Amino acid sequence: KEQINPHFLFNSLNSLYMLIDSDMKTAQKFTLNLSRIYRYLIDPPEKNIVPLKHELLFIEKYIFLQQTRFKDELFFSIKIESEEAFDKFIPYLAFQIAVENVIKHNKATYETPLTTQIVIEKDRVIISNNLQKKLRIEPSTKFGLNYLNGIYNFYSKTTFETSEKDGKFVCILPLISIHS
Fold first, then answer.
1. What pTM was computed for the model?
2. Span 121-155, pLDDT tens digits
3. DSSP string of 111-143?
4. How far is it, in rounded angstroms, from Cα 54 to Cα 4?
5. Span between the terminal Cα atoms of the chain, in Å
6. What are the DSSP calls for 16-80, one per residue?
């Protein structure tokens, strides 16, 4: 529950306030997505993993809020390369941790937008973005990455990794199979 930065709620409410007068339909959709995000956060899973589809639906709502706030500064794409992936699980809030880190550590402007791609493969999800590091970055606690590492270690997954290469930051999230 504490994964979502408190500034996220404050910024979202400010954005909603600005939208109400200028774009009522978007304000309504924004409100609905914000409420669904918090509903997802209120009921965390017992074993800290969720079906991939649940996490994907969550991140689509989160991305909508971010794109509403930063219109021409943030671009996201989601590409599904394997439907088999939807039979698997992923750590709870894994997508949000990765996407929030992208926004937190990179600058995004109209002239140089921040572009993030989520690619769903059979056994993993790859989240990558163009590197545009902020000059002054907030101190990192690495809480999110440590949380993901802990869950992957618990499920004996050793292929979780993050790297910087060729002007991109890449986060590889292995999918978890649960056999009954």
1. 0.87
2. 999 999 999 999 998 877 677 788 889 999 999 99
3. SS-EEEEEEE-SSEEEEEEE--B-SSPPPP--H
4. 17
5. 28
6. HHHHHHH-HHHHHHHHHHHHHHHHHHHS--TTSEEEHHHHHHHHHHHHHHHHHHTTTTEEEEEEE
> Residues for the chain: how many in total?
180
Characterize the bridge pairing of strands 89-91 and 49-51: antiparallel
Cβ(144)–Cβ(133) below 8 Å: no
Question: Cα 47–60–22 angle (5° rounding)?
Answer: 135
156: alpha, beta or left, given left = phi > 0 and alpha = psi -120 to 50?
left
CB burial of residue 17 (10 Å; 0-12, 13-18, 19+): exposed
